[in-house]
């Protein structure tokens, strides 16, 4: 019975995987855009239950985007669904540090893919000498924004804005707005099942079939053994039923069955052969 329940349980997982594959087909916002699969989905192109909360994507101006309440929309450059689980993003404003400063990632299902370090954003009334390098996209004629290590001494003309854990400080050599905007997510229970059994469906199914066959053979063998035992018992009963004893033999047989032998130990009944 336990084997049957085991088989039915795993069969339901396979059916659930098939249902996800069938009802949540891959989708794209545009032909050259990233392919969107579970646990993500595109609003309006895929059913609502094809993604988890916070994993809903949008098609805007021929782009695939994801919305973060603390910042706004970011463009989805690519998504890797393998063991890396990496989604690369682009900032439409081409100001990656503006994203780092304002994106409240801990309140989302995601986290930065790269190693983080604490940096402090400074708002200075006057330019700082080198080696400080201001962030152009966040600075103006009357204010200058810098990103420094949190342990450094803050100049008198500057005020700390915020200390955040980000992948890197500002550098003119890292002008690509996509650098550092890589986020990942933890595998949830449902996704873990779907990914695991989608990848190893054939092997697991073969194992289940083998277990089912072994259980069937054991059941048949047990049934046959019990049937043979009952047939043997029935034969002994028939022999006993048709056996003829004289009155003296019957009395001796009864004594042998319930009495005691010469040594005082209880003896077994002696059925006629």
From TrEMBL:
Its main location: membrane. It is a single-pass membrane protein. It is found in: Membrane. Keywords: Membrane, Metal-binding, Signal, Transferase, Transmembrane, Transmembrane helix, Ubl conjugation pathway, Zinc, Zinc-finger. One of its GO terms (cellular component) is membrane. Belongs to the RING-type zinc finger family. ATL subfamily. PANTHER family: RING-TYPE E3 UBIQUITIN TRANSFERASE, RING/U-BOX SUPERFAMILY PROTEIN. This is RING-type E3 ubiquitin transferase. Pathway: Protein modification; protein ubiquitination. Residues 24-86 form the Wall-associated receptor kinase galacturonan-binding domain. Residues 1-19 form the signal peptide. One of its GO terms (molecular function) is polysaccharide binding. It comes from Rhododendron simsii (Sims's rhododendron). Residues 248-273 are annotated as: Disordered. It comes from the Eukaryota. Its EC number is 2.3.2.27. Pfam families: GUB_WAK_bind (PF13947). It catalyses: S-ubiquitinyl-[E2 ubiquitin-conjugating enzyme]-L-cysteine + [acceptor protein]-L-lysine = [E2 ubiquitin-conjugating enzyme]-L-cysteine + N(6)-ubiquitinyl-[acceptor protein]-L-lysine.
């Amino acid at each position: 019975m336990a084997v049957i329940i085991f088989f039915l349980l795993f069969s339901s997982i396979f059916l659930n995987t098939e249902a996800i594959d069938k009802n949540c087909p891959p989708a794209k916002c545009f032909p050259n855009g990233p392919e969107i699969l579970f646990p993500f989905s595109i609003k309006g192109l895929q059913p609502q239950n094809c993604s988890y909360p916070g994993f809903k994507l949008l098609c805007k101006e021929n782009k695939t985007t994801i919305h973060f309440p603390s910042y706004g929309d970011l463009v989805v450059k690519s998504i890797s669904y393998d063991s890396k689980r990496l989604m690369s993003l682009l900032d439409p404003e081409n100001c990656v540090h503006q994203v780092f400063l304002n994106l409240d990632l801990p309140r989302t299902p995601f986290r930065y893919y790269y190693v983080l370090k604490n940096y402090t954003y400074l708002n200075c009334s006057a330019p700082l000498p080198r080696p400080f390098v201001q962030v152009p996209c966040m600075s103006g004629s009357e204010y200058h924004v810098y990103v420094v290590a949190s342990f450094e001494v803050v100049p008198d003309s500057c005020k700390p804005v915020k200390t955040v854990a980000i992948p890197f400080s500002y550098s003119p050599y890292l002008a690509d707005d996509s650098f550092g905007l890589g986020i990942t997510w933890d595998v949830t229970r449902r996704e873990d099942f779907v990914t695991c059994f989608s990848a190893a469906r054939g092997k697991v199914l073969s194992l289940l079939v083998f277990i089912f066959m072994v259980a069937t053979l054991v059941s048949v063998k047990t049934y046959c053994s019990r049937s043979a035992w009952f047939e043997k018992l029935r034969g002994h009963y028939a022999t006993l039923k048709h056996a003829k004893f004289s009155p003296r033999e019957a009395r001796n047989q009864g004594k042998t069955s319930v009495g005691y032998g010469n040594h005082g130990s209880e003896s077994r009944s002696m059925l006629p052969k």
